[in-house]
Each structure stands twice: as structure tokens, then as C-alpha cells.
Amino acid sequence: MAEDLLSAIQISEKVRQGLIRAEDVTVAAIQRIDALDPDLHAFLHIDREDSLSTAREIDKRVAHGEDPGPLSGVPIAIKDNICVAGMPATAGSRILEEYVPPYDATVVERIRAAGGIVIGKTNLDEFAMGSSCEYSAYGPVRNPWDRERVPGGSSGGSAAAVASGMVPIALGSDTGGSIRQPASLCGIVGLKPTYGRVSRYGLIAFASSLDQIGSMARNVDDAALLLGVIAGRDAKDSTSSGEPTPRFLSGSGNHGKGIKVGLPVEYLEGVDPQIESKVREAVTVLERSGVEVREIRLPRTPYALPCYYLICTAEASSNLARYDGVHYGIRAEASGGMIGMYSATREQGFGAEVKLRILLGTFVLSAGFYDAYYKNATRVRTQIRDEFDRAFQEVDAIIGPTSPITAFKIGEKMGDPIQMYQCDVLTVAANLAGLPAISVPCGLADGLPAGFQVVGKPFAERDVLRLGMIVEEGISFPPGPQGMGVPG
Ligand code: GLN
Questions:
Q1: How far apart are the C-alpha atoms of 449 and 442, rounded to whole Å?
Q2: Which residue numbers are catalytic?
Q3: How far is the CA of 210 from the centre of ligand 1 (A)?
Q4: 287 Cα–ligand 1 center, Å
């Protein structure tokens, strides 16, 4: 079996024991990327030289009897809205085409310190705004399960890279579902941590009160391993939490006795019946393991999506004001002095969806409309949080589908932003409430992956991972897309 198709945990164990070399693992990953990526377009940048020299360093340290850390020799892909020193960080936008950050994001620093090999940067919707990767200024990503279909978004490049076996793990970011929805559409595991669990320093901001960085992997344990490396307080991000980082890895032998979960009736409304039946199978798996599953109600659910789109556009309009041709990226030549240069740069640098969101956000924050839109949205957000708090008095976690639909055809939703926004109907609430949530594969619906979501109490990533693991162990899911040779 090729070394790059081992799990992250297996690679790290074998590298630390000197059974395989980090260099060979890295070479194999690069070969696989070179073979598959011209078709999938999951990567925007591949760093062959640096990743190979880092791998050789790791091998030397092992040879000297050192332990390079829990990610020893593990190739990892980084979503291109997270800064890696010396590599481009475009965030999928023309406006950052020439931007090369001089520093590592805190998560990247921690990955390096744990012995991980940063192999490259993955494709995404521009500024992480989208659910299909079609809004990337650099061309769409294809779903490894069906090349005519989208991988989901916005972390679709990371999802496709992991699902196709190019890398065992990747980082994504999740503002309204961007880790979980592509994980669901590509048949992998995606974990959005509690807001504050992971530092956002070095993440190119979209909506700061919602953004979180998290793991994407082919199994729950690898997702837990990566979270353990990146989690924890960071003085460079004042919203990062001092909550201690527990041991997230669960080990095997999971049972669900004593755990109560709620399945909200609202979470099955409008869901593809085939996905619903896969979710019900996962529910049976949980029940068989001893989990008590109850039907619950979360009546504020229909308000989560409009609330999210008011808040995220408002925050985006403020965060994206810095791209003006002065500080970062491209600068357009234009007449009309400074203002002319600003507007020409923004006109040429931003894509249509990003412009739409900046305009919407500016509108909802403008005098006269602020109270009706933004302020009301923040009130609804509090109500949604309160509703979760109340539910968590009865149950330990909330379950349901991750996405109401499976991967759709490239181009299918491009004419209709509202249809694209509907993709997030089941994921945004966890971001509004800042809760941890995972998506794990729960079967195939018409040959395409379906995802099962578990939302937990604040900082209860361990519960979420444990429930995800029970589903993973109890469900039969193909090891990877056909023809890709991805082992389980
Ligand atoms: N698809 C959602 C949006 O377009 C979520 C994006 C994200 O989580 N970054 O806003």
C-alpha cells in the first residue's frame, strides 16, 4: 500500500518508529497530487521543495532519536485563506493574486511544531463565500466521486484533496458550514470546533464572529488528532479561549450508554428522502450502541439562514474594506486619483458574489436600515443560542443531516444565489451559537455521499467526536470514491 494512503495516525506512528520515511510519504503524496489534481483542481499551490526538505529534517530527527511530534511526516493541505509564510494566500480571489504572507497562521505554526508537512494550499470559494467552490477566481474544484459535480464549499479543495487520497488531512474554515458541507458532499469527516477553541490568527477574515478553523480527514480519529494539535489559547487572537485542550482521541471500543441526543423534527424538513433514510440508519446505529435518541423541537430553525446571511454580509463588508489596492494584492491603474484607484482595484479584483455580499452588508449596516436588519439579526441570533441552551438541558447533543442534498452538478445553482444559500440551512445555526459540530459520512444516496451531523455543547468536542465515531464504526461506507484506490 502506498504510504500516502495510510491514515495520519498510521503515518505518524510509522515515521516515529523509523518504519517509513517522511520523505517517501511526501514524495508519494506529491506524485498522487500530480496524477490527480490536473483533473480535480483541489490545489492552488503545491510546495514541492519546502515540503521535501521539511520531511528530510523530520527523518533526520527520528534518526537522532528525537520525537518530532504527533504529526510526524504527515502531509497536510491548507485552505488558501490561511496564511503560510512564503506561500501565496489568494483566498480564491484575484485581489490577493500576488499576496505572499510573511508569517504563519498560529494553526500552521502548531502543525509545523508537531512535525506536519505543509504540502500546499487548497482551492476555495472567493473569501470562503459559497457552497460549491464555483466562486473561486481560479476555476472550480471537481468532486472525486463524480467529476461533473461540485465538491461543496467553501473548503471544497481541502475536501476533494482528502477524499481522493492526495493527503490524509487538511485544514478548512467554517463560517456557516464550509467544513461540514463539503465534507458531507465528498464523503469525509469535517469538524468545526467551538468558537474560540482554535486561534483565528492568520485566517483571512470573512465574518469574524462566526469563522473557525477546523479539521478535515478520512476518519474521526485523524480529525481528532489534528484538532488536538491546533487547539488552545493564543495571545494573538483575543477571541481564542483559555479552555484547556483535552485529549480528543477517543480510542476504540465506543459505546453510547448514558448519552442522550435530540433529533429536531425541523432538521428533516425538505431533506432529500434518500439522505433522510441514511440518517435514520445512523440513528439506529447510535441506538444500538446505547445512545438514547429523542425527537425534539427547535422552532427557531427557519430563522437561522436569513439571520446568518445578514450577520455574515455585515461583517464581510467591514472585513473586506481593507482590500483597496494599498495594503495587499493587486492595484489597478486608473484615473481619478486615489478614489479612482480604490474603485478600479475593487471592481477588477472582486468577483460578483463577493461584491453582492459587500453591497448587502453595507446596506444592512447603513443608517436607517441598521435597526431593521442588522440589529434584529443579532437579536434572533441570541434567541437561537438560547434555544440551543434549553435543548442542552434535555440532551447532550443534537443530530441530523449535514446537508439537505448530495453533490449537485457544476453550474446547476450558479444563476440563483438563494438556491446556493439554501445549502447551508442545516449548518449555519452551529456557527451562530458558536457550537462544535462534526459531519461524518453515513452512506450513499444514489451513489453520492450523505453526511450525518452532530452538534455539541460549547467545548464538548469530545462528545461530538465520540458520537461521530460510533456512526463511523457502525455504518457501512465505501473507503473512497471508485477508481481512486483510497483505502479505509
Ligand atoms: N456557504 C456559506 C456562505 O456562503 C458558508 C461559507 C463558510 O462557511 N465559509 O457563506
A1: 8
A2: 79, 154, 178
A3: 10
A4: 32
pLDDT given at position 487: 58
pLDDT score, position 251: 61
340 vs 330: CA distance, rounded Å: 14
**pLDDT of amino acid 98:** 87
> 136: Cβ below 6 Å to ligand 1?
no
State the pLDDT at residue 249: 81
Cα of 421 vs centre of ligand 1, distance in Å, is 8
> 270 by DSSP, 3-state: which?
coil
What mean pLDDT is predicted for residues 176-200?
A: 98
Which of 175, 208, 432 maximizes ligand 1 atoms within 8 Å of its Cβ, making it the mutation to test the pocket? 175
Give pLDDT, residue 320: 97
> What would the DSSP string read from start to end of 59-112?
HHHHHTT----TTTT-EEEEETTB--TTS---TT-GGGTT---SS--HHHHHHH
Distance in angstroms (rounded) separating the CA atoms of residues 163 and 398: 26
| Nearest ligand 1 atom to alpha carbon 130 | 4
- Residue 44 φ/ψ, nearest 5 degrees: -105, -20
Query: Is the confidence at residue 4, as pLDDT, over 80?
Result: no
Return d(Cα 81, Cα 206) in angstroms, integer.
Answer: 9
325, 70 Cβ separation under 8 angstroms: no
Report helix, strand or coil for 143. Answer: strand
Cell of residue 94, nine digits: 484575484
| Residues 175-185 pLDDT 10s | 999 999 999 99
Q: Which of 81, 127, 154 to mutate to test the pocket of ligand 1 (most atoms within 8 A of CB)?
A: 154
Q: CB within 8 A of 222, min separation 6: which ones? A: 7, 8, 9, 168, 169, 189, 215
Distance CA 380, CA 393 (A): 20
| In the chain, where the domains are located | 2-261+393-474
pLDDT band at 2 (very low <50, low <70, confident <90, very high): very low
> Per-residue pLDDT averaged across 86-105, rounded?
97
Q: Which amino acid is at 320?
A: L
Report the CATH architecture of 2-261+393-474: Alpha-Beta Complex (3.90)
pLDDT at 117 over 80: yes
Q: Nearest 10 degrees: CA dihedral of 19, 23, 29, 35?
A: -120
Helix (H) or strand (E) holding 7: none
Give the residue whose CA is nearest to atom 4 of ligand 1.
130
